[in-house]
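Try it yourself: sequence plus magnesium ion, in.
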Amino acid sequence: MSEIETTKIWLANFTTSAEAAKLSKEFLEYLGFSSNYQSARLAIGRSLGEGSFSETAPDAKGMSIKGNLLFDDEDKGGLLWLALLVENIHQHFPNKKITLEDLQHAVRDHWHRGIYLLKQDWDEVEGDYSKFVELLITRRAALPATMENQQIGKSFDKTFLDAKPIWLTLGQIKNSDESAQWLINGVGYSPNIALMGQAGSGKTRTMLNLIQQVYKQTNVPVILLDLGKGDLANNAELVKALNAKVLQIPEQAIPLDMFKRTTEADSAAHILQGFRDSFERSMQSKPGAKQLDAFREALKPLFQNQEEITIQNIKSALDRYYNENKIKTDSVMATINDLIQFKLFEPVSSPPEFFNQNWIITFGHAQETTKKLASCLLIDVLHNYMKCCQDAPTDNEGHRGLRLILAIDESKSLLANRHPGLSNLLRLHRSKGLCVMLASQSPDDYEGAADDYLEQIGLPVCFRTNANSTAILTNMFKSKQNFSSLESGECFSVIDNQTRKIKVF
Ligand SMILES: Nc1ncnc2c1ncn2[C@@H]1O[C@H](COP(=O)(O)OP(=O)(O)O)[C@@H](O)[C@H]1O
Ligand SMILES: [Mg+2]
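Structure, out:
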């Protein structure tokens, strides 16, 4: 192999027979592929999997594809394809010095044979997409059922995590000259904060103050979702202090690849399942089981075959499926039609890129559906991203470095949604250095949340409220307090295991 330089291979043309090229085109349609190289790769891979060496193709008159497109870039699998081809040639001709021409011949022949084998497979399953995939995976390739979590996200994990104690000052303890301090990354409790209180009581102001205290000490990335009126977009001081990018949804799209697989173990089916859950929760009326099935079937090929999925792709796939199966426009379609009016998200950054910057994301003019879908999706992506981050380091005393702050203002709708993603974020990623801050008006918003979820709130802060969800408040504050008699700027919180009345401002 020393005879050829890889750069020559990337620039060379690879082709197959005219017949095979024609069949390859047909496969684009069968499998919903958008580019010739996709069916070419599948065919070459299919043929390489056979024990025997491929017979020579009748001609080389098919379409030609440049090496770097056919095999992809060096760091994206190109070298792996070359290794597979070289290995295959060597198996049959151990002493051969391989030239570029040999490689071109091998590609031509494998592609030709492979596409015919795929055609046989396709006919065997009578053109049923799922059966075809199953056949390839289970019988032809005999892939293992599980795969080690490869933590691909790890290499993108650029955050410098500094493990040290991070103290926050909440205010002054009432009738004392002590200040109320809380160690956000102490040992044995969660770093998450819940702020409650009626409108105008001081939640947002306090949350922003706490975020900035952490940010000043750590420079940790902050994702701030404002699910209320969107005022935070105009808070120039905040934007400057956090050096944040502001996104106003729906006028602007979230520049994040929402469906990026961060690990090899993340299956397309799993990502689609997450999307369907989020979509279902953002619909005004709950869809039926049949609708959900159709939704999954319609989007399966898209999620399996395409990278960088947009809401437009989703709409087209649904349209096609509804047409083919003569399904009338229903509430799923109506929801998609609402969503399609805006871009919502654009697959620009990968999750590790996106979550290493500061964002203030507001939904001032967004419809409820848009707001719910975008926030649910973001939470899902964050959960998947966190899963593949390494544990955050701790210092000698066990203080954990912070990786990211997710702060959600006016989080009522998200809490009411019972989205499993949010509870995942609260429960599972403490060890990765995630801190979640939630502001919502009433403790009632936590009603129905499981106890283990409430236990994930390390610092409860409640300003004046008339709500008396006794169970929730007792769980959070460990004792009964009179929350309706709090004065402006006063809250109850739990510091050193004691409920204290605190003057915040
Ligand atoms: N930085 C600030 N300095 C002084 N007053 C503020 C500041 N931020 C907000 N306020 C005032 O404090 C009160 C509480 O505001 P806010 O935190 O937005 O309440 P909530 O989020 O609970 O509805 C409001 O009266 C508001 O006008
Ligand atoms: Mg507020």
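One thing you can check immediately is this: The CA atoms of residues 243 and 372 lie 26 Å apart.
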